[in-house]
Structure formats: structure tokens, C-alpha cells
Request: fold
Amino acid sequence: MSILVNKDTKVIVQGFTGKEGSFHASQCMDYGTQIVGGVTPGKGGQEHLGKPVFNTVKEAVNSTGATVSMIFVPPAFVSDAVMEAADAGIELAVIITEGAPVKDMMYAKMYATKKGMSTIGPNCPGVITAEECKIGIMPGNIFKKGNVGLISKSGTLTYEASHQVVQEGYGITTAVGIGGDPIIGLSYKQLLPMFEADPETEAIVMIGEIGGDLEIQAAKFIKENISKPVVAFIAGQTAPKGKRMGHAGAIISGGSGTAAEKMAALEEAGVKVVVSPADIGKAVKEVLSK
Amino acid sequence: MNIHEYQAKQIFQKYGVPTPRGKIAHTVEEAVEAAKELGGNIWVVKAQIHAGGRGLGGGVKLAKSLDEVKEYAEAILGMTLVTHQTGPEGKLVQKVYIEEGADIQAEFYLGMLLDRAKEMPVMMASTEGGMEIEKVAEETPEKIVKVNIDPTIGFQGYHGRELAFGLGLPKEEVGTFIKFAKALYDVYMDNDAEMIEINPLIKTGDGKFLALDAKMGFDDNALGRHPDIEAMRDLSEEEPTEVEAKKYGLSYIKLDGNVGCMVNGAGLAMATMDIIKHEGGEPANFLDVGGGANPETVAKGFEIILQDPNVKAIFVNIFGGIVRCDRVANGILEATKITEVNVPVVVRLDGTNALEAADILRNANIDNIITAENLADGAKKAVEAAKGE
Reply:
């Protein structure tokens, strides 16, 4: 078991024939992901990477039965692509593109929610169910199969965390890179109950960072709803106020959204919070060997 | 991206958000000329820098004659203004805004930004005009009225009424206020603003609302569709190394410590700063070289880090994924040929092909390159190297 995606998930790629879309789609296929086609307006009817190309998401969904879309279109076209996917009945859109305007994502997410489509990202590494299905840009070989669920705002920290978990002799069920933009799709609060319900997942690692209050919401949720052990690391303990730390959403504004307040809230909720990012793996081992 | 007060007011005026009349001046002569053109017998001389708290720092003066306009413009232009937002080094004032005086009857706060939890904009108003809103929020949160505006319905009359009555305005002033707030909403949405702050928003003796101050920031991701706003960028207000880094696709932020950091990925870059602190050191910067980490970007990264004379050691922390570590290792060796690196460099490469990468670095036999086994080891070695141990 796993969450969100598995070896049977049928995936299309929006922005299929572009440089990034092509490269990562073929990497996903190598990993075993069922990429069943893609969308590039104006290239419908062609074949790319041995899969059919469609002009619209609707056609792609009708012909392939895909339920998930991986989106690589340029930032200015992201909201259009997300809304098109939602309108075509896609169930989950994984938005890899970096640099989408916040206002666009606000409208896109509202529409997706209205249509019952979940989103992941934007500006994220994607989602991977170890050794089954990779939808995104993460290096698949880092994610060995196991019993730890992973939720992270940061790409490379996801790899770092997974690597540490594997070095301690454990592995990953599903890892979700949720992205660090001000408006994102699925977040801790929606993903935690999925891991709670997944019989294979025995512990959950959540990696957060400064800015916003998603981690605080997660802490409240964990306290009341999650029985599995949770390990957390919050990046940006040393970040100065008012400076945007790479991710558009990683900013301490008006003194709120600090790492300290998030760490305190999580600790109070019974989460094993590590101060050093090098201790994530060790902490997983500790909670799992109890 | 942030802009100056006078620029924000130019945008306001286009949308019918009332402001006092004013003119920008770069010299004392221009300042006096501006005051003459504006007319009247009272003016405000305001330093234009991207930081709040200008009044307390002596950057805002009320002039009651043209001689005083001249005197204050002379004092303010060219001064290094220090406020609680500029840091101790302050900011050089290169422009002053000359504005007509206003008859202030009451002061309010009006601001707008994205409510991240609700995922829609929020407009905030307070009777505590002139106070820092964070302070008001902390000490007297009941004095702030907040209204979320769902962009799919836009700014409706009731949004305005909730704010106006929340501020305790008499009913004959509510209509004028709503018009003001609605225009401000349009400014925010049309221009992809990230935040707008009017502090204070004033009510004049004749019952008008005016934006006496204006602060605006924009969503960098949306600047591509607002060339008029991008043209307002004042690079002299930004940290020069941060601007330079951006040109090469690097995200750099200068900090006060002595351990330089070069990392791939924003989250890992923040975590690297954290672990340096955890090991007893102080990070000199945040630097995300992005996913590629090729020789050119790494070389540029070294160059930018070393522009900071405080840096005594550099910690290169790269988690190789799709970009394999052996390639990154070669990139680092190449980079040391392009840019002279005269401090110890601790390199931690982990992930895909990490062992090959370690061999490449060891075999290169470069004195000041120290390899690290993992994240903790790398941070420890970097902190030690910076201390000269």
C-alpha cells in the first residue's frame, strides 16, 4: 500500500514535448510510472516517447483513462493548465513548474477544489511511491521501499531525509513534495490522515520551513487525529526576519511563521522534533524501535 | 519587489485612490521648485527609501516656508537614514518627495495582503493609524478589523461596510471610505501586489480620505506581465551581491557569520545554515545554486560568497539527485580554476554517485578542499575550519 499513487496509476504529462517535460517523463517511465500520453497544444496526433500526444486534456483523458496529470508548462500558463485538467476530470494534478504567479494559483486552486481535483505543488519535486510510481523530478534511486511516509516543502531536503531513513535501514512508502509557495495544493493536514490510514506506513516524517502556518495547523491536527509517530524538522531556524529564503513562501513576516513557533507547536503535539537536519534518520529509527 | 512611496502613490492615483499632491525631487533646487509648483504654505519633505520608520529617523520634515523646504531638502538628500528597518548601516537618501500639507483630523491604518491560511486576499483596517500594525496586532488585536475578499466575487459593498463600521466611522462617511477601499482592492489585484500598506490613512477636516503614506510590494513571479511596474525597480535599494547573484540564477542572501554556504535547493540551504549554527558556528549567507550546480554557477557562487570579507571557510553541501555527484565534483574542481578560492572549502556530496565524487575530490589533491562524509560531519568541519582549527 501507499498513498495517492501506485503502479496502476495512469498519468499524462501537460507540457509533454518540452525539454523539461520530455526529460522527466522519460525518467518517470524508466522508473516504472505508467505515463500513458501527454498534452501539447498543436502537436495532437503525434507520438512522443512512444506515447500519444493530444491537443487537449479532455482528449487525453478520454483516450487514455488517465487520472493524474504531471504539469511542466511554463509559469505563465500554469493556472490555465491546472484548470483545464480539473475541467477534464483529472483527479490529481502534480504541478512541477516553478515561478507561477500567486494570484494565478489562487484562482487555479479554487477551481480545482470546486471540481474535486487535488493538486500538489506548484514548485515542488512531485510525489513518489517507492519502487512503483514516480511523478516528478526526484531521483528515484534514493527512495527505497519501506514503512515511512514523507511530506516535505523542500525538494533536496526530501532526498536528504529519504537518504537518511534508508541509511538507518528503513524505507519510504510514499514521499510527497508539497512545495514552498504561498499557495500550495495538498498539505500536511490533508496528507497526514492518508498516511494514518495507510497500513504500510508506520511512521511519518514531515519537513517544514519558515513562513505561513501550515505546520501549526498540522500540529493541531496531529494532536487530535494521528496515532502514528511523527518526526519533524523545520528549516530556517537561523533565517533573518523579512527575507525571502529562496522559496516564495519562506519568509518570516511580521514576526510570525518562525521556525521556533512551529517547532514548539509540533513538540507540544507529541511530535519528535529534531533541531539538526542530520538527525532525521536517527529520530525515525528511535520512534520505530520503540 | 518593493517600490518607493511616491511610485506607489502614482499607481494609487491611476486607480482613484486619493493621495495628497506631491512631486519627486533629486536635488535641493528641484525640491524648492516642486514646492512652488504645488503652491500653498505648508509642505512635507519626505526621504524616499525602501524602509519604514523614516519619520523617527529624521527623514520626514514639515516645512512652513520655501526656505524651510530648502533647509530640510539639504539635510535629507544625501543623508544616511537609519530606521528600525534599515539595519544599523542605514540607507543613503537620493530622492525626496515634496508633498502638500494635509489637514489631519483622524489617522487610520489600511493594508492588504494574501491571507495564506484562507488562500485569498485580506484587507485590514485599524483606528491605530501611524502605529506599527504588528505591534497593534500583538497588543490590541481587537483594534484590527479584517475582511477576507473572495476574488471570484470581488470587492463588494459589504466588505467595505464591515471595514467602515468596524472602524467606527459615522454613516455619512461610510460611502467615501468604501469607494477608497474598493479602489485599493483594484490596485492590489490588477498589479499582482503582494502587500499594500497605507499607514496612516487620514481623514481630513473636509471629510476626505487620503493615503498619507504608501508602501507596496509585488509578486516577483508576476512581474513579467507588468513591465510598467518592473520599470519602477530601484536597484540601489537592493543588496548589490543579491542582485548580482540573481543575474546568474542564484539565490543569495547575506548574513553576519563567517561560514559561507553553497547548497542546492532552498530548503537544504536553510537547513545548512541551521546545522552550522547547531555545530557552534555562524552562517555567512544563504545560497541556493539551484538544481544544476554546473561549473559556472558553482564558480559564480564562490565568487559571490568570497566578496564577503568575513568568510573564513566555505561549506559546499550538495545532494546529488538527477545531477550526479561525480559531475558536481568535477564542477567544483573546474570552479576553483575559474575563481581563486583562498579559504578552506569543506565539500559534502551525497546522493547519486557520491563515492565516485569523493574519489575525484581526493585524487585532485587540492590543499584547501576538505571532504566530508555526511551533513553533520561537513558542518562540523566547516565550523572548525572557519575557527582556524
Remarks:
- Chain B has a mean pLDDT of 92.
- DSSP finds 13 helices and 19 strands in chain B.
- Chain B touches chain A through 55 residues (CB under 8 Å).
